[in-house]
Amino acid sequence: MSQYLELFQSQRALIDGNSIPFLNQHRDAAAQALAQLGLPTQKEERYRYTDVVGAFAPNYGLNLRQAHTAANQPDAAVLRQAEALYGTLASVQADAITALNTMLVQDITVLCIPAGEQKENPIRVSQLLRSTAPLMQNRRLLIVAEPGSRARILLNDKADEGQDFLTTQVTEVFVSEGADVEFYDIEQTHARCHRFHQFYADVQQGGRLTHTVFTLTGGLSRNTTQVRLSGKDAEANLYGCAVIDATQHCDNNTLIDHAVAGCRSNELYKYVVDQQAVGAFAGRVLVRPGADQTDSRETNANLVCTTQARMFTQPMLEIYADDVKCSHGSTVGQLNDEALFYMRQRGISQADARLLLKQAFASEVINALPFEALRGRLQVLVDQRFRGELNHCRTCNLCGTQNT
Amino acid sequence: MLEIKNLHATVGGKEILKGIDLTVRPGEVHALMGQNGAGKSTLSNVLVGHPAYTVTEGSVTYNGKDLLAMSPEERANEGLFLSFQQPVEIPGVPMNYFMRAAYNAKRKHLGLEPISSGDFVKLMREKRKIVELDSKLTSRSVNEGFSGGEKKRNEIFQMAILEPSFCILDETDSGLDVDALRIVAEGFNQLRKPDTSAIVITHYQRLLDYIKPDVVHVLINGRIVRTGGPELALEIENQGFDWIKNEE
Ligand SMILES: Nc1ncnc2c1ncn2[C@@H]1O[C@H](COP(=O)(O)OP(=O)(O)OP(=O)(O)O)[C@@H](O)[C@H]1O
Ligand SMILES: [Mg+2]
């Protein structure tokens, strides 16, 4: 960790000079918080399943002189809004990785959906890692959905083969009254990528957030997803699907914070853990005092395909209110032998039978998604993934970029 | 076409089959009867290669080949079909997707190209008629939420698609109402080619009224203790198994 603080202290001018100006105002507080917190060890409850210190230990290169070209001329009002909201959900005091990101980040993508606007087509944010040397990248995304607006955001993470990458990403999403945001995060990186995504959202009265994370290919993936329901009748839907094998490690850590009465949350995460992969899911649902009439459901189901594969699952329900309807459940199972045999008796090979069962398992998450056009596409990606044919860029049209 | 010799098999370390000898020639239908727990389903499971069952002695020759050396899917693709006593539910795997995978596996085995989706839809429609299977069922997951009778009907529907040359029907009649029994049994007869053979496991004569057996066997405690013509099934229907046991 000290290498990051030292880098920050010695290169402060360079970092500030190549940044969107308002990001600079937050660096000192972030550095202070990071120095105080230190990177989390596995003794810390929230990070017990992932070796953060190990992931940040190597000396990745950091390009502090990146050229900054604005995607479009930033609107002054949007910038002012972004400046005011930046860091209000992603607290540097509460999380060391968020602090590290805030200390070093030089670039931000801001999406503002004006009041009442109904965007049918998804907004695509494609992130591609490409480098000739090991590289660390810090990313920042800020989304404001103004009252009554509606948007779908599709984030696609990819990386060129052959290099070690470390990324931190902090996303803040502000869902105003009656707004509806669907956020889809699809990771298709590779075994030498270490990805940390800290996602924070606040949902106001009558608003709805749907968060989906698909871990298809990657090395180490740690997704922290925290959603606060802070206005009556707000709703959060969290979906996750991890298809991991080889030495992949995928850790999803979620918090749904029912801060007021009369909100709904629904969470469904499914993992297919093959070979020596390690999966972890910790889903905390917090129902604060006074958050009566909370309706919350949480399900984590996992398929562990080999004896070396491991899955840790930890649903946590904390209720400090009355008259709530909450349920949570988690299962860890193997492929159903009788179903496998039934299919083989019909002539289907053992390998294909296993494939069909895995696809069936994952399809429950896909079928739950409200974005119909994406469902078919995800089904294809997941099927390719199970067949081992998913080469992260050649086979996918999600981001629209052609990579050769 | 199927020759079982001195077959012994165990499940969970317990010997269930204690020396079965049985020969079924092309086109023949053999009925297999016997009390609960006698080992009838065990025999079917052993024949189709269920991994929970271990053959400890004996041999099975199928069309001149060593059946026991083949994988379950090879046996299936060589024309062996089991209508399960208790068909399993497979949530999330759509019936039509499953059947297409099975059908194409067989085509691949025969060295043929996969069927086009258009042709497959036609095939499904045509075969559904034979067993009067509701089209709603084929768009659902395999057996999921099917009634007991619907599951049995679905077994024969799958048989209709795959056109096996050797069928084992394990209590396909149980769970079927009177009309369904007639439809399914007549469907089976319609699907049979002159050289299709079958082992029909049942407790009741009513199925054998439709599917007429050439030979009837009685299995007791892991052995075939009596073999006769169709009249043997009628005797059992009237008198149960005790008289056979007493003669032992
Ligand atoms: N997988 C298994 N594990 C343990 N025991 C088994 C298993 N399968 C069968 N058995 C036992 O083997 C014996 C024979 O069972 P089987 O199912 O072959 O009988 P059956 O003749 O088909 O009876 P039924 O008429 O009731 O269907 C029974 O005692 C049963 O409990
Ligand atoms: Mg039986």
How does this model look, in words?
The complex is a heterodimer of chains A (404) and B (248). Chain A contains 10 helices and 17 strands. With 404 residues, chain A is of the alpha/beta class. Chain A has one domain (2-387). Mean pLDDT of chain A is 93; it is low at 392-404. With 248 residues, chain B is an alpha/beta fold. Chain B has a single domain (2-247), classed as Rossmann fold (3-Layer(aba) Sandwich). Helix content of chain B is 40%, strand content 29%. In chain B, strand 9 (166-170), helix 7 (178-191) and strand 10 (197-201) form a beta-alpha-beta unit. The mean pLDDT of chain B is 94. Chain A binds chain B through residues 336-339, 341-350, 352, 356-357, 359-361, 363-364, and chain B through 48-51, 71-73, 75-77, 81-82, 84, 87-93, 97-99, 101-102, 105-106, 109, 141-142, 158, 162. Adenosine-5'-triphosphate binds at residues 11-12, 16, 34, 36-42, 52, 85 of chain B.
User: pLDDT below 50 for ≥5 consecutive residues: which ranges of chain A?
Assistant: 392-404
Strand count of chain B: 12
Give the quaternary arrangement of the chains: heterodimer
- The CATH class of chain B is identified as Alpha Beta
Please identify the structural class of chain A as seen in this structure.
alpha/beta
Query: Quick check: average pLDDT of chain A?
Result: 93
Find the structural class of chain B using helix and strand composition.
Answer: alpha/beta
